[in-house]
Write a structure and sequence with these properties.
Helix content is 24%, strand content 23%. By secondary structure, the chain is of the alpha/beta class. The chain has two domains: 3-63, no CATH class; 66-367, TIM Barrel, CATH 3.20.20.70. A nine-stranded mixed β-sheet has the order 16-15-14-13-12-11-9-8-23. A three-stranded antiparallel β-sheet has the order 1-6-5. The chain has a three-stranded antiparallel β-sheet with strand order 2-3-4, with no helix packed on it. Helix 9 (281-293) links the parallel strand 15 and strand 16. It is globular.
């Protein structure tokens, strides 16, 4: 029996019914799935594009009860630069994805049911244990990441619902291929949402397995629904690095809100895309400048720590005062002042303008110097 078949059977055993909010049933046993923008019509005995949501005799079954990876990460790695700076996130991921990006840096988990080279055996765990691990490790945030979280939203909500009772914040690190139904489903339990805006050409998106319009609509809807949104564009030489395309991305984001942080990050060869060279510092600085020219107030250059000058830091959008100083994932200085003792808003210490973000209170805002590296949680303890 092929390894992929045995993994498939194992995962099928660790599944549960799909949320009724995310499906539409038909008389012949077919089920329409609304977990992601593909909106798959899944017939009995078949799987959706994601390869993990499947129709078992007219019931759509979805992943639950396992992780393929789990770690304590600085929240800046997600990256969220305007949410709980210096705090840590318990990050967990499952298997499968609704895209098939040739440069995926998490392909071991995301492509596990699509590529026989991807070997990421699951570790079985319940939601209560994940929440307790977060609390044991002093995390402020729970993050569904490493594979596409939208396709495992039922499991994420099960975890985040428990976490919320203990004061933990839910977050998604996603490709943004969402539907209104899935965003409504997760909204009570997810406050922070990072979207990968991979390009601004529909042809590129279709090669990766998606549709550009779906991601653009998701970004607009996230903002309307009052998620805290940050956007990442991994700049791949020859794929999306022209001035015109980067300017169009920046213009789009600014049109939704100039306060949305845009992270322009450096590519390194990975998975099936080994030909393009690494992204240069000069390219990141050029993208940063294009974002600023478009009117974006917060543009960050990432993946090349200490090589991009001031472009890892946060400055007040009103007076230009530096309020957070970073090096890579480390917060070296945080000068934000809480507006209220227990509120999430903060102000600039120089001009007292409110700096957009979800900052928490003073006990959440600590320096992370020296603990800026991810800490793997031992799966043997699960």
């Amino acid at each position: 029996m092929p390894a992929s078949t045995s993994l498939r059977e194992l995962l099928n055993q660790h599944s549960g019914p799909a949320a009724h909010e995310l499906i539409e049933r038909y008389a012949d046993g077919d089920v329409r799935c609304f977990a992601c923008g593909h909106r798959c019509l899944v017939r009995p005995g078949r799987f959706g594009v994601c390869r993990v949501r499947f129709n078992d005799g007219g019931e759509l079954r979805v992943p639950r009860g396992y992780v393929a990876g789990i770690a304590v990460d600085p929240i800046e790695k997600k990256p969220f630069f305007h949410a709980y700076p210096g705090s840590e996130a318990l990050s967990f991921g499952m298997l499968g994805c609704d895209f098939h990006c040739g440069y995926c840096q998490n392909w071991i988990t995301s492509q596990a049911l699509r590529d026989e080279r991807a070997q990421a055996p699951p570790s079985f765990i319940d939601a209560e244990r994940i929440v307790s691990l977060a609390l044991e490790h002093g995390c402020r945030v729970l993050t569904s990441t490493y594979n596409e979280p939208l396709i495992t939203s039922e499991w994420a909500v099960e975890i985040f619902k428990l976490g919320k009772q203990s004061g933990l914040v839910g977050s998604y690190v996603s490709n943004g291929n969402a539907t209104p139904q899935v965003l409504e489903f997760i909204r009570p339990y997810v406050d922070l949402y990072k979207v990968d805006l991979k390009a601004f050409r529909d042809r590129t998106y279709r090669e990766l397995g998606g549709v550009l319009e779906n991601t653009l609509n998701t970004i607009k809807l996230l903002k309307q629904m009052d998620f805290w949104v940050e956007i990442v564009t991994l700049i791949v030489p020859g794929l999306n690095d022209s001035d015109q395309e980067l300017r169009e991305i920046a213009d789009f984001i600014a049109g939704v809100s100039p306060e949305i942080p845009w992270h322009v990050t450096a590519f390194h060869p990975d998975y099936r895309m080994t030909d393009p060279p690494r992204t240069t510092v000069e390219t990141l600085l050029r993208a940063h400048e294009l974002g600023r020219q478009a009117g974006l107030r917060f543009v960050y250059a990432g993946n090349l720590p200490a090589l991009v000058g001031d472009r890892e830091n946060t400055r007040c959008q009103n007076c230009g005062e530096r309020v957070i100083r970073r090096r890579g994932f480390e917060v070296l200085e945080n000068r934000l002042m809480s507006l209220t003792e227990h509120g999430p808003r903060a102000k600039c210490p120089a001009c007292e303008a409110v700096v957009p973000g979800v900052w928490g209170n003073s006990k959440d805002a600590r320096l992370s110097a020296g603990v800026g590296a991810p800490r793997r949680v031992s799966l043997r303890t699960l």
